[in-house]
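Researcher: Here's a chain I'd like modeled. Treat it as a single chain, no partners, no ligands.
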Amino acid sequence: MPGRVAAVVPAAGRGERLGGGTAKALRMIGDAPMLVHAVRSLRAAPSVDLLIVAAPADDLDAVRELLGSSVLVVPGGMTRSESVRCALAVLPDDVDMVLVHDAARPFVPASVVEAVVGAVRGGHDAVVPVVALPDTVKRLAADGRVLETLSRHDLYAVQTPQGFLRGVLVEAHRDRPMDATDDAVLVEAAGRPVWTVQGADEAFKVTRPADLLRAEFLLARLHG
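Model: Modeled as a single isolated chain. Structure tokens:
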């Protein structure tokens, strides 16, 4: 019988590109912080059994009050990967699948979460949601000169949540304790295949001030 599915949310980053001194995950979108929206989105997925948030150490009490007792909140690290490892360290024994989701993707549809879980349950060790790139992509030299134009037909942007068999993810972080922009790259470095499912436009990442405006618009559309 399959074990439980835990969703890990690394949320300790400061988000310098958004400006201001507030932790990125605690920036407001409408009536709630970004992190609250992300947790709500994960809770809407029937397959998610447990939520673990790695929060800024100096905001632990505030985050626990925001999310309630049903979410396990632990101190995060200085980097995204360190925060993921902090969460992995407290996984209960009955968890056999881990989803890692960016707090900065507050509105991922439950259908994407379920597609990732379904693909892992279907036999894949590691699964990520992707969307096709709409723009032409060029590789540049350090001085800004264009080196080549890449074919976008086989290039995709990767989203979260990314899903893994527990042992695969724990091993990847243990053997490659480096910082990474996502967890799949650590699994790839271990020589394991990473599979994909279709992502969603709603699962965009809030990185810059303009993304906050986009998130506000999406929130109004979802609840309008």
